[in-house]
Every structure is written in C-alpha cells, then in structure tokens.
Specification:
The protein contains 20 helices and nine strands. The protein has 511 residues and is mostly helical. The chain has a three-stranded antiparallel beta sheet. GO terms for molecular function: histidine ammonia-lyase activity. It is found in: Cytoplasm. Its main location: cytoplasm.
C-alpha cells in the first residue's frame, strides 16, 4: 500500500493528490514534540484557571460563560454532540480520508493544543479504514466547518456511525473491531478538532483534481475535433502564444501541436484550404483552455497553502500564549472554489461548441448531418449534442460565485461567512457534468475522424481513438446511446483517456 508521510508546513499538492487516490497518510514523527508542548500549554491554563476562550469558557456567543475545571471534559464532549447537525448524503470515502489527513496535518503543526494520543487516533483510524460518516451539508465555511467536522470527531469519541472496511456500523463497535479505543476529549481538543477549514479544503481539492483530469482529456478531444472538422493547426504556432505570454496558453498550444503531429487529415488541407479562419471553438482552444489551466493552477497554489495551514482557534503561539484569531474563516478556499467552478464551466462551454460544430452540416466542412451515415433514416448524434448543451447549461447555473453569498449566523457573532463548503461541494456535480460533455465530444470527434477515411489522424490521437473505440463502437445505424455516453464519461473520469497519449504531452497541474 502506498504511504505518504505528512510534513506539516511543506506538504505538496502531489502528495494530497496521492492521498485522494488512495495513499495512506501518517504524520512525521518529528511533529510529536511540538504537539506535546502545545498540549502542555493548554494544561497549564486549566490548572491556573485564567479564562481562555474554548478552554474554560463557552463557545461563540456564549464565550463570556466561565466553565469550572471539573467540567472541562464535559464541555468538550457537549460541544461535539451539539454540533453534530449535518444533513444530506454522506461524503464519499476519498473525501473523508482527505479531510482526516488535512486535520492531521493541521494538528501536527503544534499550535492547536491537542494531545499526541488524540492525533494518533486519527492516524490509526486512517490506517485501519475506520472512516466517519460525515453528512455533506451544514457548514457555512467560517468558525470552521463545524457540523461536518463534529461528525468526524464524534466517531473519535465512539458516537455516530462510521464505515469500517466498507460496512457502515456504530462508531464504538467499529473502533473495538479495529482494536482502537475512543478518546475522552481533554481541554480544547473538541474545539481544535471542529474548528478548521478541512472539509471545505478537501472538497475543493477533490474538485481541483477532477477538473484537471477532465481539462487534460479536453485537450485530447479538442484535438480530435480539430481533425474531424479539418481545422487548421496554424493557430497553435508557438510564437503566437509566446507573444502573449500566459503559461497555460503556451502549454495548451504545445499539447495540441503534439497531439496533432503527423495527422494525414491535417496534412491534406495544409495547402489550398479555402477557409481563412476556423470558428473560435477550434482556433481559440489554447486561449480558452489555457486561461482555465491558469485558474486551476492558481487555485492549486491557494489550496496547497491552506492544506499546510493551522486553521482552528484559539492558537497556541510559539511563546506558549494562547490567542484567539480568525484562521477558521475559509475565504481563500471559497475564492479558489469559485475559480475552479469558472474553469470547469468554460472548458465545457467551448467543448460543447465543438460538438455542435461537428453535428451541423452547415459548419462541419463536408461531414453528414449529425454524423449519421444515412441521415434522415438515422438521427445519429443529434440528441447527444442536446445532452451536452443541457450539461453545459447546468454548469453555467452552478458557476455563480458562492463566496459573495455571506449570511450572519450564531446570533450575529459570526456575521460574515465564506460559504466555502457550498462553493467546493458544487464542484463534484460540476466536474461530473463536464466529464459528460467531454465524453460526448470524444464520441462525436472519433465519429467525425472515422468519416474522413481513408485519411488518418496522427500517432498520438490514434492511440486515443483506439481507447475510445474500445468502449464505444462506431455508429453505423441508430442504436440505444445512453450506454455509449456513460462509457465515454467513464473514460474521462477514470483517467483512461488522458493515459492513452504519451507521457509529457498534457500539462501538469503544477506549472
């Protein structure tokens, strides 16, 4: 099993991607000393009795209420139970694992005041596949992702449900089966565990990784569509893009050139092409896709920083003092999620126009209507294009920025919130829709390429063509198409389509 050692403060995006794909994280043992020192600072506060928020006071609007030392453990347990207010479907296991890994990384910085044994329980639950059932809704992205993280923490104290080795069961039962003991939360530990941006960040990271995968696939399908439409590769000339200077645009153009290299279809009309310019959906692929790639990379840098951050409150500072702040406010994550949503929307919008181009005989330069071999008797890919338009429009509706939709909560104590969790969670259906659009483009593009026979596309695109055709046979006459669309979508979502071309052609997430 692949393992990742988390070094809080220097965790890389690639390591987070590996955890999302199934690697098991553990904390760098070098963190133990800092974690223990912060826990000792909290214990000194409890012993001394000076009022410090969240240690011996109430929470939020109740911060002025003093809590006696003998009730500190009850305070933390009550905090968790009262905050388990999540609703909706459980989050997927890969996202729950990422949430726990991010919480592990944050606590490992040694500024949260939790004991080493509490951190160790999170590690052990990940190692033993004991994953809390966390409802998807309930966070507004400030004061931490309180409700969902409370469900995570509830499992640690033996309350609520978990999924253990694939089976849902009560948390206490699962911990016992895994040879683990529930933790009794000490001072500040409950607050440290539920204060933080880990749910919003994990969802945003999942959206980022999925969006980047589909963006790479879209370069392949875009190149196939260019050949199917007998489009020109001249707009992909490197100097055009170097003159503008945007890294994503330069990288996208380079990928398109490499994908189209050696195409007989392209070579057949290099001279004497009567069209002066192709439509924007063909010609401006590097400019649009490249700008989207730049947005994804920018969001990736923000989320990498957040993954290394301490985002609970109050914090144990280097001098041992404990100070309240606002690192739990997830505004950076909300902005990153909105950027990712815009990129997802635009990748799908321009791909949908390429699909429309290929099925329209007035625009497709000699291809039959709807790519049907006997149009009229057969409708071909007419409604596949309509489905792509439906998916595109739904993504447009979801692309409105979530970060501007603050609402006051907790008796106006928390009067401005980020909505990061909303913004990040909507990336999952948006990337699913985008994969559907790109899957449909894969089907229309290879159908168009086939109709250019005996001319063939280039070596790299022939590999992609073969992968698509292994899942979706050529359309000779009308047939039940829903399964074909599902297969095309799966090629994109699984990474099989991007894996079909040579390594090094498609742009990486880290420029």
């Amino acid at each position: 099993m692949n393992r990742i050692v988390l070094r809080p403060g220097s965790i890389r995006l690639s390591e987070l991607a590996a955890i999302y794909e199934g690697a098991t994280p553990s904390l760098d043992p070098a963190c133990a000393e800092r974690v223990a020192a912060a826990a000792a600072a909290v214990e000194r506060i409890v012993t001394k009795g000076d009022p410090v928020y969240g240690i011996n006071t109430g929470f939020g609007k109740l911060a002025s209420v003093r809590i006696p030392a003998e009730d500190v453990e009850t305070l933390q347990r009550n905090l968790i139970l009262s905050h388990c207010c999540g609703v909706g479907d459980p989050l997927p296991r890969e996202i729950v694992r990422l949430i726990m890994a991010l919480k592990l990384a944050s606590l490992g910085r040694g500024a949260s005041g939790v004991r080493p044994q509490t951190v160790a329980l999170i590690e052990a639950m990940l190692a033993n596949d004991v994953l809390p059932v966390i409802p998807e809704k309930g966070s507004v992205g400030a004061s931490g992702d309180l409700a969902p993280l409370a469900h995570m923490t509830a499992a640690m104290i033996g309350v609520g449900d978990v999924v253990y080795t694939g089976v849902r069961m009560p948390a206490g039962e699962a911990l016992a089966k895994a040879g683990l003991k529930p933790v009794v939360l000490a001072a500040k530990e409950g607050l440290a565990l539920i204060n933080g941006t880990q749910v919003s960040t994990a969802l945003a990271l999942a959206g980022l990784f999925r969006a980047h995968r589909v963006a790479r696939a879209a370069l392949i399908t875009g190149a196939l569509s260019t050949d199917a439409a007998m489009g020109s590769s001249a707009p992909f000339h490197p100097e055009i893009h170097e003159l503008r200077g945007h890294r994503g645009q330069i990288d996208s153009a380079a990928a398109l050139r490499a994908l189209l290299k050696g195409s007989e279809i392209r070579d057949s009309h290099l001279d004497g092409d009567e069209r002066v310019q192709d439509p924007y959906c063909i010609r401006c692929q590097p400019q649009v896709g490249g700008a989207c790639l730049d947005l994804l990379r920018m969001a990736g840098r923000t989320l990498e920083t957040e993954a290394n951050a301490v985002t609970d409150n109050p914090l144990v500072l280097a001098d041992g003092s404990i100070v309240s702040g606002g690192n739990f406010h997830a505004e950076p994550v909300a902005f990153a999620a909105d950027q990712i949503a815009l990129a997802i929307c635009e990748i799908g919008a321009i791909a949908q126009r390429r699909i429309s181009l290929l099925v329209d005989p007035a625009l497709s330069f000699g291809l039959p209507a709807f790519l049907a071999k006997m149009p009229g008797l057969n409708s071909g890919l007419m409604i596949a294009e309509v489905t792509s338009a439906a998916l595109m429009s739904e993504n447009k509706q979801m692309a409105h920025p979530a970060s501007v939709d603050s609402t006051p909560t907790s008796a106006n104590q928390e009067d401005h919130v980020s909505m990061a969790c909303h913004g990040a969670r909507r990336l999952l259906p948006m990337t699913a829709n985008l994969a559907g659009i790109i899957g449909i483009e894969a089907i229309t593009a290879v159908q168009g390429v086939d109709l250019r026979a005996p001319l063939k596309t280039g070596t790299e695109l022939l590999r992609a063509h073969a992968v698509i055709r292994s899942a979706v046979p050529a359309l000779e006459v009308d047939r039940y198409l829903a399964d074909d669309l599902a297969a095309g979508t799966e090629l994109v979502m699984s990474g099989a389509l991007e894996a079909s071309v040579s390594e090094g052609i498609l742009p990486e997430l880290s420029a």
